[in-house]
Amino acid sequence: MGASIVPIIVFTVLWGVVGIVCPFFAPKGPNRGIIQVVLMLTAATCWLFWLCAYMAQMNPLVGPRLNNETLIWISYTWGNPINKTKV
């Protein structure tokens, strides 16, 4: 499983619009600069969080660790009972 360019482009454009275009539509007033900075920082941090989560799914470092009783219960529940004589 590798990276696909489509979600990277889509989410980069989405957060780019939030961080670059939306600040121009901030209402005029004494807090306009703060609202613009908040929109830019929100877009940057959300994009970075999404990118880290997306990249972490490409090559997970840790898989689930289950003890034997849990594995036997799961296989029995799913209809694949483990034959203990073969183990």
From TrEMBL:
One cellular-component annotation, GO: proton-transporting V-type ATPase, V0 domain
Primary localization: membrane
InterPro entries membership: ATPase_V0-cplx_e1/e2_su, ATPase_V0-cplx_e1/e2_su_met
Keywords linked to the UniProt accession: Hydrogen ion transport, Ion transport, Membrane, Transmembrane, Transmembrane helix, Transport
Keyword Transmembrane helix: yes
Membrane-related topology note: Multi-pass membrane protein
Transmembrane residue ranges: 6-26, 33-56
Subcellular location: Endomembrane system; Membrane
Positions in coiled-coil regions: none
Gene Ontology terms, MF aspect: proton-transporting ATPase activity, rotational mechanism
Subunit (UniProt): V-ATPase is a heteromultimeric enzyme made up of two complexes: the ATP-hydrolytic V1 complex and the proton translocation V0 complex.
Family of this protein: Belongs to the V-ATPase e1/e2 subunit family.
Annotated function: Subunit of the V0 complex of vacuolar(H+)-ATPase (V-ATPase), a multisubunit enzyme composed of a peripheral complex (V1) that hydrolyzes ATP and a membrane integral complex (V0) that translocates protons. V-ATPase is responsible for acidifying and maintaining the pH of intracellular compartments and in some cell types, is targeted to the plasma membrane, where it is responsible for acidifying the extracellular environment.
Record's protein name: V-type proton ATPase subunit
Naturally occurring in which organism (per UniProt): Diatraea saccharalis (sugarcane borer)
Species lineage: Eukaryota, Metazoa, Ecdysozoa, Arthropoda, Hexapoda
